[in-house]
């Protein structure tokens, strides 16, 4: 899609309107001296409402144009207006995207955030960050040149195939239309990939094989059994052979690349290094600290948690190992106690039901201890994960998308049907009696689900689409500690020990990501750290290593958000003394939606202190 002239003109007009509204806020000199104050206030209010209106118009227009530029991303968030379009990632498209980001940033910067409401101001900073981040990724990170896994058409086709947002025949027609550009898409991809890394090439190889399956099996079967016309089916089979050839060609190309990269000594490192890492951290996480500062904090936090775990394990030792000598290595002792208490777990057939039963207990605790306002409007629906969403075992919150706000929030729990006895036992030991409680706090109450209920009240499209991951994950991690500190579980040492093991994973995620991407940590060093210092299972550690080679920075979001929220709370406690109120803090904090923690801090700190004097 190209930006047509009327749209460009419209944007220019919008920019001047914004500039004008800002300018009028300063022209107070023309007022009569007698009521200058009232006049000034009035003018200020007027200017503010004009600015707020201008901002709303800007963000609406920005998002619509964004979906035209990225119709696939739009489908992911449930916006289907441009579902038939598949842009070709060639130079022309890339230049268009960059120009769009620069133009939108200039338009945004013409708005003064100080004249906006708190809700809009936080949206303003989120958008500013997103636009700057987009420009940075295109011009500095340049992952389009080294990450072959960014090129994969399958995901969006899968959603169109499996989501009943319009009748099946219409979706199949959309799929046929959208397939037209597949050959050109993969040609452009190969041209862009001047410097791929080995792990990203291997990932793309694996995923592209899955893509081929989607077209040749799932889509082809649905087409064949549909009531589409003969012509439609004919067109489909033409496009299917062209698409298969294109994807096969890409697979072949990746295969050769992977072989060459394995042998090469000059292959591009998957590690992005310190400079790019700090910048990506700044954009993706939106912290008030540098990555290095938080890395140091994580390292000292790991030491503190180890000390706490040693104290608890020491105390529990005689209870479980009476008459047995304690291992000299303290970490080995901790591991022995953890392994022993992990046998306390539910039966595999009770897994889903026991999670279901725990939610009301958590809600009752939050209410009784007056921790956070609980809204009964939108109860959480605990269900077995639908078959088409299974893949990973476990439990997770499935929240409604930005364009489907009325939908239910589900707590998807996958039953252990696909495990053999040994796998089930190992899984149940990991998600044992103690850990399940912490998991439910994190995912449901008062973690992700509760945060979602609150953030829906200050809902904005901007936050639904660009919400800050560090805030969202940080909140869930923060609530684990907060609940235990408020007495959930009666300070049972087993629960605390399990909590620390779980928390250690969050801390270790940060340390690992930074150490691998910035300090060149090797695979064996990383595995050793996870297994011997964070008590993780080898399989889990292996998976984490892989994730840390394929993504950068994302693994730091949990610890960063958690640290900043906890610290903000402690600072407010200090500033308000015995007037501090935990429930007020939580409600106030959550009222800004999924904005970055430093923005929320800016918006609430003085207010909170002034109203708790
Ligand atoms: Zn067992
Ligand atoms: Zn989470």
Task: Provide a short characterization of the protein structure.
By secondary structure, this protein is an all-alpha fold. 68% of the residues lie in helices and 2% in strands.
Helix content range of the residues, please?
55-70%
Q: What is the rounded distance between the termini?
A: 56 Å
Class by helix and strand content? mainly alpha
Bound molecules: zinc ion
Main sheet: which strands, in order across?
Answer: 1-3-2
Spans with pLDDT under 50 lasting ≥5 residues? 1-34
Describe what this molecule looks like in 3D.
The protein has a 3-stranded mixed β-sheet with strand order 1-3-2, covered by helices on one side. Residues about 1-35 have low confidence and may be disordered. The chain is globular, with a radius of gyration of 27 Å. About 70% of the residues lie in helices and about 0% in strands. It is mainly alpha-helical and about 625 residues long. The longest helix has about 35 residues, at about 35-70. It has helices at about 5-25, 35-70, 70-75, 90-110, 120-140, 145, 155-160, 170-180, 180-190, 200-225, 230-265, 275-285, 290-320, 330-340, 350-370, 420-430, 435-445, 450-455, 460-465, 470-485, 495-515, 525-535, 540-550, 555-575, 580-590, 595-610; strands at about 380-385, 395-400, 410-415. The structure holds zinc ion (ZN) (2 copies). One zinc ion (ZN) binds near residues 343, 425 and 428. One zinc ion binds next to α20.
């Amino acid at each position: 899609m190209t930006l047509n002239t009327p749209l460009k003109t419209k944007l220019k007009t919008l920019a001047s309107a914004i500039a004008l509204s800002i300018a009028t806020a300063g022209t107070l000199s023309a007022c009569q001296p007698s009521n200058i104050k009232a006049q000034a206030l009035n003018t200020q209010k007027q200017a503010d409402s004009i600015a707020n209106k201008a901002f709303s118009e800007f963000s609406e227009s920005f998002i619509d144009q964004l979906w035209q530029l990225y119709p696939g991303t739009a489908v992911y968030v449930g916006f289907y207006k441009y579902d038939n379009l598949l842009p070709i990632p060639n130079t022309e498209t890339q230049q268009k995207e960059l120009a769009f980001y620069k133009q939108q940033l200039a338009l945004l910067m013409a708005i003064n955030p100080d004249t906006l409401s708190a809700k809009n101001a936080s949206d303003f900073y989120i958008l500013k960050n997103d636009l700057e981040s987009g420009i940075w990724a295109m011009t500095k990170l340049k992952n389009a040149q080294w990450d072959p896994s960014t090129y994969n058409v399958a995901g969006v086709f899968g959603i169109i195939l499996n989501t009943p947002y319009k009748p099946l025949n219409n979706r199949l027609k959309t799929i046929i239309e959208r397939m037209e550009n597949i050959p050109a898409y993969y040609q452009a991809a190969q041209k862009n990939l001047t410097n791929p890394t080995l792990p990203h090439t291997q990932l793309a190889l694996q995923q592209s094989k899955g893509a081929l399956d989607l077209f040749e099996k799932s889509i082809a079967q649905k087409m064949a059994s549909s009531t589409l016309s003969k012509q439609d089916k004919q067109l489909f089979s033409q496009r299917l052979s062209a698409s298969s050839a294109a994807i096969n060609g890409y697979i072949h190309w990746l295969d050769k690349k992977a072989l060459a990269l394995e042998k090469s000594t000059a292959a591009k490192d998957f590690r992005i290094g310190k400079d790019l890492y700090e910048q990506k951290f700044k954009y993706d996480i939106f912290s008030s600290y540098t990555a290095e500062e938080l890395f140091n904090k994580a390292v000292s936090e790991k030491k503190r948690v180890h000390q706490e775990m040693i104290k608890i394990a020491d105390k529990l030792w005689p209870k479980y190992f009476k008459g047995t000598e304690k291992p000299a290595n303290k970490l080995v002792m901790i591991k022995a106690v953890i392994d022993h208490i992990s046998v306390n777990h539910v039966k595999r057939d009770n897994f889903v039901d026991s999670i279901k039963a725990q939610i009301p207990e958590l809600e009752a605790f939050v209410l009784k201890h007056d921790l956070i306002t609980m809204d009964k409007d939108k109860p959480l629906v605990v269900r077995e994960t639908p078959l088409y969403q299974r893949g990973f075992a476990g439990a997770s919150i499935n929240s409604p998308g930005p364009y489907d706000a009325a939908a239910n929030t589900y707590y998807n729990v996958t039953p252990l049907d696909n495990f053999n006895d040994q796998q089930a036992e190992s899984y149940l030991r990991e998600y044992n009696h103690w850990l399940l409680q912490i998991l439910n706090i994190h995912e449901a109450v008062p973690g992700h689900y509760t945060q979602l209920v609150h953030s829906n009240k200050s809902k904005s499209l901007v936050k639904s689409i660009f919400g800050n991951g560090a805030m969202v994950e940080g909140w869930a991690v923060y609530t684990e500690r907060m609940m235990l500190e408020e007495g959930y579980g009666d300070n049972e040492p087993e629960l605390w020990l399990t909590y620390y093991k779980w928390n250690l994973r969050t801390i270790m995620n940060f340390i690992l990501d930074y150490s691998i991407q910035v300090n060149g940590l090797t695979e064996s060093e990383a595995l050793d750290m996870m297994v011997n210092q964070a008590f993780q299972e080898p399989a889990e550690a292996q998976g984490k290593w892989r994730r840390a080679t394929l993504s950068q920075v994302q693994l730091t979001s949990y610890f960063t958000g958690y640290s900043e929220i906890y610290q903000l709370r402690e600072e407010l406690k200090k500033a308000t003394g015995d007037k501090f109120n935990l429930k007020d803090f939580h409600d106030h904090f959550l009222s800004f939606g999924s904005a970055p923690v430093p923005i929320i801090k800016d918006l609430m700190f003085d207010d909170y202190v002034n109203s708790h004097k």
